[in-house]
Design goal:
Layout lengths: L1 E4 L6 E4 L2 E2 L6 E4 L7 E4 L8 E7 L10 E2 L3 E6 L5 E4 L4 E4 L4 E3 L2 E3 L5 E5 L2 E2 L1 E2 L2 E2 L6 E4 L8 E4 L8 E7 L8 E2 L3 E6 L3 E4 L4 E4 L4 E3 L2 E3 L5 E5 L2 E2 L1 E2 L2 E2 L6 E4 L8 E4 L8 E7 L9 E2 L3 E6 L5 E4 L4 E4 L4 E3 L2 E3 L5 E5 L2 E2 L1 E2 L2 E2 L6 E4 L8 E4 L8 E7 L8 E2 L3 E6 L3 E4 L4 E4 L4 E3 L2 E3 L5 E5 L2 E2 L1 E2 L2 E2 L6 E4 L8 E4 L8 E7 L9 E2 L3 E6 L5 E2 L7 E5 L4 E3 L3 E2 L5 E5 L2 E2 L1 E2 L2 E2 L6 E4 L8 E4 L8 E7 L8 E2 L3 E6 L3 E4 L4 E4 L4 E3 L2 E3 L5 E5 L2 E2 L1 E2 ...
Parallel strand pairs: 8-134, 10-21, 23-34, 36-47, 49-60, 62-73, 75-86, 88-99, 101-109, 111-120, 123-132
Antiparallel strand pairs: 1-2, 1-6, 2-3, 4-5, 6-7, 6-8, 9-12, 11-18, 13-14, 13-19, 15-16, 17-18, 19-20, 19-21, 22-25, 24-31, 26-27, 26-32, 28-29, 30-31, 32-33, 32-34, 35-38, 37-44, 39-40, 39-45, 41-42, 43-44, 45-46, 45-47, 48-51, 50-57, 52-53, 52-58, 54-55, 56-57, 58-59, 58-60, 61-64, 63-70, ...
Length: 1271
């Protein structure tokens, strides 16, 4: 029977589903399904208290009573402070972090924590000086949690949280909470290995200090006990103790062979946070008591003099004497040494058969052949171990060590090193780096060799043709040996190498005054012969480099050239005006060389030439004068006018024989306007303004094409024509049509049917009108409040008249998008990289559409051919990806994505291209979306560097220090476990990979290609500034797995997709098939697909997508279990099949007849409809007029950003009904808020112009821009 008790364990409020208290506000919910939830209506202050759910005992079946944990009901008044959470009794162990909760609603006073009655904090400040204490939580939400970062025994005590009185609030005090801090559990005594005979009784010991968990004895991993209770089915086991709660010894009576195994003592983790602990695993060995036998025998041993050695000999069921012999002579008998050598002794527990021979301070004379035997006795025969060899050698020592040496470059030096009794491996080291192993040289230097006149003893290091780089500290080192001999190392020998030459300047460039343009790259050359000091570049007297390191942090600066040949050329990319100045290189003094200075460069950076005014299309009647404008700022090259690609001027001079042409220059040096007097039809054509490349490297520029149209005034022609339009329902459509020298009647047609006659609309379309300046030939069609029925093909045409033929603009499409259309602004095309492409690179193109009912149908088109992509659909999004390998054939190719939808009159498109591919023979390219890279700590980072047709060595540089050479990381400059060079080196990929990024990895990186071939310069990439931020976790509701088809048949191809959302860096996704990794296809960084060929072999397989992230304590997964149905088989054609087929054919004929009649009837109705016109539904117009305006939709305070609508998102409340939980009732006056977020409305118009031309050349078209120019 279930009861519910109220405040402070008062009498029951209910009995099963019946309320026994005199309170009509109480109700028991859902008793029919075993739930007895207590509902209290109209809560008041009197209801505050502690509630429990109690089930009484059932004496009929012997079931005991049970009771839930107390649930506290707290009533909060919105006007005064109150506690929403209070501290609770807590147990923990030393060293762990612990938090005591205290949350205050409507806080007005100060929150104070006290320990044992003494205040220790005031609001967020700790007042007792304990650095382990802090106040944490969201104080804006009233959270003032007391955190102890590392609990100590002294933190044990009574804690209480109170809020001082303030304003209208009285002081409130939480209940007292007891914090108990104990030492962690640990073993005092652990079990040891035991050897016994069948039938014996043994005890395995185990004692625990501060035990908090449950203690188990385990044998071979299986649990035998639980504290003092035996859980295994073995009556010979028992737990014995002389110290209850501390000692848990396992006693085994009547040992048998089944008891042999591995035993350990295990204590589980505890509720106070204490971790589980395991004792050492020990072996219990049980022997048969019948006859003596060896259980352990000695083995060959090699040691050095002065060490101790033990030769093992263990006998089970010993009956005779155990005797050790050396070289056939007995030296012991049982535990007695009989050879008189005090260094010899018998070690071990003789009662357990241990007769181990120990020799202390071994000498070379101890070398010999040893054997252990047990003499015959009782039922046992004599037994002997195999003979073994003991070898005692003198320790390795140096006979001769290297000494310091000073020589001149080009000479030969020998460092001596001889070793007696060498047991380890001998290495020579230079500056702590190993250069040899025994007789082998480990470095690539033909001038170094190991020479010896006494092999195995002498290992002299000989270096000939010594150079200054050979100077350093050398040591001879012998490693420790397997016989226990220690390693030895000689004293350091310093090699000093003098050079006789001094550093000198290399060739000085002839031109030191350089003029360049902004955005270009300049290399200031400098070389030094026999460099000994540091090469330093300065700008206007301030140092900016030191050897290869750039000091001012400017990533545009780098040191290029063959440094080994003394080239230290300063390269500056992406030049700006601020780079102008005086640059000088110098080499500091060093050794015998004085400081030397090169002549200074004077660098002038000018803005690049650009058009300030470009010519535009113009139309004019023959005989008039026109001027095509062209103005250039920072002109460095020669300016030419071109007509149809042919040059007609050079700067201010006309280069063709035509007196009507002239160059008009209102502003000399910048304006080069082309004037043509008395134009004629021969002047009709395309004109461009072109400025040639300049001596300072400024690139050539060319204006856009300006079309000059010369009209014959005697015939009519279009000057503007309509273009395709895409609009939303309710918007206004304007189709332009302007006719020059109109002679006939201008008519608009829709879908082939005429709808106007000059300015008159000839249909009942009240929202159609002809607008514009008719005297100027403007007959523009305007459609207001456009509806889907207005979609169609429209054309403007003029009938023939006088001497003018009929002319037509060509049909254009009008698409009115309805509410079921996809979002405006889509489709969108994106590419996996915006950088210049490299041959062999993988390129992923993604086309995306959002919304629509049904969703849009996407397809990729390349050069008019449809390309098969990878589709990935969700409820609201459609994506089509195209995965390409970059080849030279793709250069200049454009990819178009077409979006088709029932509401589109024509497909809507987006495009990528033409593709720009780097097909140069040798170039270093650094792939990165941004100059600077930022990632999160714990993520993985890849910096890509590719060298095509690589000839030389590629290095990665970090903060001026070289960290790699090709695929080899430089010693000491990286973390070997996290840094590596990856990529396909066969295509020049040398990608720097950094796993588990740390703050120390931040810095400036670039890659450098050094060449060992003549004529090939050193090349470097741009620098990347690598920053590291804290990681942001992905959305908690992801990953999500989807399958392309819910019904899969044997032979089908199925696409599994795994999606993650959010996170910085994004989560890493991995598909597994029954625990085996599968290679997926990354559609983008948040979606990975897996293509499966369905068959009986994969039926029932589980496909798991694992999402990993540095912020996850454990990876997150989603799972798809694949079910593959068998494909139906053909069992033959029955008579019933043929009867059914005949019936279906007859039915199909009847349906076709009905369809023919319906189509015929509809065409007749449409014909009558078009003749009579139609009247729009006034109800639709009134409904649209009654819709609220955009401003009326803003139902909340605050100004929207952009074209946005606020959407109310309701707060979802989750009820927990398993057990009573603390509840909080918010008092009157406290309201809940609803989150409002703007939804952006995006628009895209298609502006393709009509391309049809009139019949006669005499009347070319005029566009709107030309008409304006005429006016």
């Amino acid at each position: 029977m279930a009861y519910c008790r109220g405040k402070k364990m008062a009498p029951p409020l209910s009995n099963d589903a019946t309320i026994v208290a005199a309170d009509s506000r109480l109700t028991i919910l859902n008793p029919s399904v075993g739930e007895y939830n207590l509902q209290i209506d109209d809560v008041s202050v009197n209801d505050v208290g502690s509630y429990v759910c109690f089930v009484s005992e059932d004496t009929a079946i012997g079931d005991s009573s049970i009771q839930s944990n107390p649930a506290n009901l707290i009533m909060q008044d919105a006007a005064v402070q109150n506690m929403t959470s209070v501290p609770e009794d807590t147990e923990t162990i030393t060293g762990l972090e612990v938090s005591l909760e205290c949350s205050v609603f409507h806080k007005e006073g100060n929150v104070i924590w006290s320990k044992d009655g003494v205040d220790i904090s005031n609001d967020v400040f700790i007042t007792n000086g304990d650095s382990q204490l802090s106040i944490v939580g969201d104080q804006s939400a009233g959270e003032y949690y007391l955190r102890i970062s590392s609990a100590a025994l002294s933190d044990t005590g009574v804690y209480q949280c109170r809020v001082t009185p303030a304003d209208n609030s009285e002081e409130i005090i939480s209940p007292q909470a007891i914090l108990t801090v104990e030492e962690p559990q640990s073993f005092i005594v652990e079990p040891v290995e035991e050897v016994a005979v069948e039938g014996d009784v043994i005890v395995l010991t185990c004692s625990v200090e501060n035990k908090h968990g449950t203690l188990h004895w385990k044998k071979d991993g299986a649990i035998l006990t639980e504290d003092m209770q035996i859980t295994a089915n073995d009556p010979s086991l028992s737990v014995v103790t002389s110290q209850p709660g501390r000692e848990y010894n396992l006693q085994i009576n009547a040992l048998s062979m089944e008891h042999m195994g591995e035993y350990l003592c295990h204590v589980t983790s505890a509720a106070n946070g204490d971790v589980a602990i395991d004792s050492d695993s020990v072996k219990l060995t049980v022997y048969d008591a019948a006859v003596q036998d060896f259980t352990t025998v000695p083995v060959d041993t090699n040691i050095v003099a002065g060490k101790s050695v033990m030769l093992d000999c263990v006998v089970s069921n010993k009956e005779g004497d155990v005797i050790w012999s050396k070289d056939g002579v007995d030296i012991t008998k049982d535990g007695t040494v009989i050879n008189g050598d005090a260094r010899y002794s018998i070690a071990g527990d003789a009662t357990n058969g241990h007769y181990n021979l120990q020799i202390d301070d071994a000498e070379v004379t101890d070398t010999g052949e040893f054997q252990c035997r047990a003499t015959a006795a009782d039922n046992s025969d004599e037994i002997s171990t195999p003979k073994i060899d003991l070898v005692v050698d003198d320790p390795q020592t140096f006979i001769e060590k290297p000494d310091d040496a000073t020589i001149t470059e080009g000479e030969t030096v020998i460092f001596n090193c001889s070793v007696s009794n060498k047991h380890g491996t001998l290495h020579w080291k230079k500056d702590r780096n190993t250069i040899s192993t025994d007789m082998t040289i480990d470095v690539n230097d033909p001038n170094i060799a190991i020479v010896s006149d006494n092999p195995g003893v002498t290992y002299n290091l000989k270096m000939k043709n010594v150079i200054p780089d050979d100077a350093g500290v050398y040591v001879c080192y012998v490693t420790e040996a397997t016989n226990g001999d220690s390693s030895i190392e000689s004293q350091a020998a310093t090699l000093t190498v003098f050079d006789l030459a001094i550093q000198q300047l290399g060739t000085t460039p002839s031109d030191l005054d350089l003029e360049v343009v902004e955005g270009s790259t300049v290399v200031l050359q400098f070389s030094v012969q026999h460099k000994e000091g540091f090469v330093i570049w300065s700008k206007d007297g301030a140092d900016i480099s030191n050897d290869v390191t750039i000091l001012n942090g400017d990533p545009r600066l780098s040191m290029v050239g063959d440094h080994t040949s003394g080239e230290y050329n300063l390269q500056i990319t992406d030049l700006s005006a601020e780079d102008s100045g005086s640059y000088q290189a110098r080499v500091t003094s060093a050794d015998n060389s004085p400081e030397i200075h090169a002549e200074a460069y004077t660098l002038s950076v000018e803005a690049s030439q650009s058009f300030t005014t470009e010519p535009s299309d113009i139309g004019e009647v023959e005989g008039e004068t026109i001027t095509l404008p062209c103005s250039v700022s920072n002109k460095h090259g020669s300016l030419s006018w071109k007509k149809d690609g042919v040059v007609i001027s050079n700067d201010g001079v006309i280069s063709v024989s035509d007196p009507r042409l002239s160059i008009v220059s209102p502003a000399l040096g910048s304006d080069y306007n082309l004037r043509i007097d008395n134009i004629n039809l021969g002047d009709d054509g395309e004109y461009t303004c072109y400025v040639s490349e300049a001596d300072n490297g400024d690139a050539a520029i060319e204006s856009g094409i300006a079309k000059l149209t010369v009209y014959d005034s005697e015939v009519q022609n279009f000057t503007t024509v309509p273009s395709d339009v895409i609009l939303e329902v309710g918007e206004t459509v304007l189709l332009t049509c302007t006719v020059y020298h109109k002679e006939g009647t201008l008519i608009w047609s829709r879908n082939g049917e005429d709808i106007s006659n000059d300015v008159t609309i000839t249909t009942d379309d009240n929202n159609y009108s002809i607008i514009g300046d008719h005297d100027s030939g403007e007959y523009n069609l305007q459609i207001t409040n456009a509806q889907p029925v207005d979609s169609g093909q429209y054309e403007c045409w003029v009938t023939e008249g006088d001497n003018s033929d009929q002319i037509r603009s060509g049909e254009v499409s009008v698409s009115i998008r309805g509410p079921d259309s996809p979002l405006r602004g889509y489709p969108k095309c994106t590419s996996s990289t915006e950088d210049k492409l490299i041959l062999g690179e993988t390129l992923i193109l993604v086309c995306e559409s959002i919304g629509g009912n049904p969703a849009a149908n996407l397809r990729w088109v390349q050069d008019g051919m449809i390309q098969e992509g990878i589709a990935m659909d969700t409820n609201t999004e459609v994506r089509l990806s195209l995965v390409l390998t970059v080849t030279e054939d793709l250069l200049g190719t454009e990819f178009i994505c077409q979006s088709n939808h029932p509401t589109f009159y024509i497909p809507e498109t987006c495009s990528i291209g033409p593709l720009d591919i780097d097909i140069s023979q040798t170039q270093v390219v650094l792939f990165s979306k941004d100059t600077d890279k930022t990632t999160k700590e714990g993520a993985n980072m890849v910096m890509e560097c590719t060298a095509l047709n690589k000839a030389g060595t590629l290095h990665w540089i970090k903060d001026g220090q070289m960290i790699s050479s090709d695929t080899v990381m430089e010693t000491g400059q990286y973390d070997a476990n996290r840094y590596s060079i990856r990529g396909d080196q066969s295509v020049g990929e040398y990608f720097l990979n950094i796993d588990d990024v740390r703050n120390s990895d931040a810095g400036t990186y670039y890659c450098l290609l050094s060449s060992n071939e003549d004529g090939m310069p050193m090349m470097s990439s741009k620098a990347i500034n690598f920053h590291i931020d804290d990681a942001i976790p992905p959305n908690i509701n992801f990953p999500q797995c989807t399958i392309s088809s819910d019904y899969v048949i044997d032979g089908d191809t199925v696409l599994l997709t795994c999606i993650t959302k959010g996170g910085d860096p994004p989560a890493t996704l991995q598909w597994d098939q029954d625990g085996q990794n599968r290679e997926g296809i990354y559609i983008d960084e948040s979606i990975v697909g897996l293509q499966i060929n369905a068959s009986a072999e994969v039926n029932g397989n589980t496909f798991t997508c694992t999402s990993s992230h540095s912020t996850f304590e454990n990876p997150r997964t989603c799972v798809i279990e694949l079910r593959v149905e068998s494909r139906p088989t053909d069992t033959g054609t029955s008579v019933g099949f043929w009867i059914t087929l005949i019936f279906l054919i007859i039915a199909l004929i009847v349906i076709l007849l009905i369809l023919f009649f319906c189509v015929y009837k509809r065409r007749e109705d449409e014909k009558e409809y078009n003749q009579q016109g139609y009247k729009r539904n006034n109800d639709i117009e009134s409904s649209l007029a009654s819709l609220p305006s955009r401003d009326e939709l803003y139902t909340h305070t605050g100004k929207p950003t952009g074209d946005g609508l606020y959407i109310n998102r309701p707060v979802i409340n989750t009820d927990f009904t398993d057990v009573p939980a603390d509840a909080m009732n918010v008092g009157a006056g406290v309201s809940q808020t609803v989150e409002n977020k703007p939804v952006q409305i995006r628009e895209k118009r298609k502006t393709d112009e009509a391309t049809k031309k009139p019949k006669k050349k005499k009347k070319p078209r005029r566009n709107q821009k030309e008409l304006n120019a005429m006016q």
